[in-house]
Structure formats: structure tokens, C-alpha cells
Amino acid sequence: MGAGTQKGEGAGAGEGAGTGAAAGVGAGTEGSEGAKKSNSVPPLNGVVIACRVLEDQIASLGESPYPVIYLDQGLHRTPMLLKQDLQDKVAACADYDVILFGYGLCSRSVIGLQGEAHQTLILPKIDDCIGISMGGRARFYTEFAKNPGTYYFTKGWVEAAEDPLKEYHKMVAKYDQETALWTATESLKYYERTVFIKTSPEGNEPSQAYAQGFADFFRLRYEEMVGANDFLKKLLFGPWDEDFVRVEGGRVVEDSMFERI
What we know:
Helix content is 35%, strand content 17%. It is built from 10 helices and 9 strands. The protein folds into 2 domains: 15-131 and 229-258; 138-226, no CATH class. The radius of gyration is 19 Å and the shape is globular. The strands form 2 sheets. It has a 6-stranded mixed beta sheet with strand order 1-3-2-4-5-9, sandwiched between helices. Strands 6-7-8 form a 3-stranded parallel beta sheet. The chain is an alpha/beta fold.
């Protein structure tokens, strides 16, 4: 998606472990105050595999009840590479009973993933990380219907993802300004708007300035909206309701599981 609602993404194979609590710490037990509040008890033996662009938002929710493995956003540009890397991480997490994904469909990169027979896979039932940052599917679909040609940014996208402006600067150094500008502009020819989604109450200013500069450079309309971390909060702490795909018993993740309700 390149943060846009016209999708397309790049290869790069980085990853990293987050600083969440060790498996089981903070997960709660039946009778705990946290369990009463969420009406759900997070399993003791879980792990999160998430896109790097969500790292800031996940950190803002406090200590994770599970360890977190982050993958480079650049993998999105080659969905088959992202799918393979995700499956490799699933295989490497065979000792965990539950695997939570900080990914949506993401150009169908999660379709075909398969865990072990004893594992449960939990995936947000949404198109991509932009919908997650907006707080849910309903708002994402509404925005897409009104303004399909929108390039979205969050703080995480600015810090961890490539975009046409960054590619432009790389190409200027490698080729020439005319070629670089044509290539970057061509990739945005169906876009009319740039939107910065605020996913935290503070610390957004540098990222907002970048998004504004992006819009000015490509002569796009610039707007801002307030996002929500509700989706991520439910992913980490439950409940895993109709907003999530739950795959058990070694079943394969299928397209039909993501159909709109």
C-alpha cells in the first residue's frame, strides 16, 4: 500500500525483537482485574509478529503481554517475499501456542500462512496497517469510498517506510532530477490527497512536517485526521471478536476469512 489506498510496496529483509514482556508476564489469569475489564484472558504462551511501522503505536499501549518480532515495511513491495518471511517466522515460533499478527491482508501476503496443529493464529480482519491506525474497518472503508486516491502517513510510516519522495531523493543522486521526478510523479498519478493520521497525542510534529512537505512537493491536497489504537489494543489484550480472523488446528489462512461482515 505504500501508505496509500492505491497499493504497491519493496523488498528488504530486516527484523527485530521488541521489548514486550516475556511470554506469560502480564498476561493475567481468570479473576484478574485486567481480565474482568476486557472480558478476555490473554494466553500465557503467545508472540506478536508485526510490521515495523506499528512499533511506535504498540509501544504507546504500554508493556506488551507478549514478545514482539518486527519486520521491515520494505517487504511489502514484494508480497511473496513478505509472505515467505512471515511463514518463516511462524515456523520459528513453533514453541508458542498463539501467534498474533500486526498485519492486515497487506496485498494478500498473509493468505496461505499456516501454523502448527497446536497453534492459534490471530489476524486483524482488515486490509492493511492504515486501517489498523484508523481504528477499524468501518472508518477505513468510509474513507476509501470518499477519497480512494489518498496517500496516508503515520509517525511510524514516516520513520520506517519508503515513499515516493524518499525514492526521488535516492534517484536524483543515482540518475538525474528529470528522471527521478518523472518516476516519483508517475507513481502518484492517481493520487489527489495526502493525509497524516495522528496515532498519539504528542511527538507527531516532525512526521507531520514531513507529510506536509510530501504533499507540497507533489502538489497534493494535505489533511490530517485523528487515528485510534483501539484495534491494536484489542489485538494485544483482547477480546478477539468479529474484527479478527482466528485460525486453529493447522488450518491455512484463506481469503474467505477476511470477507466483510
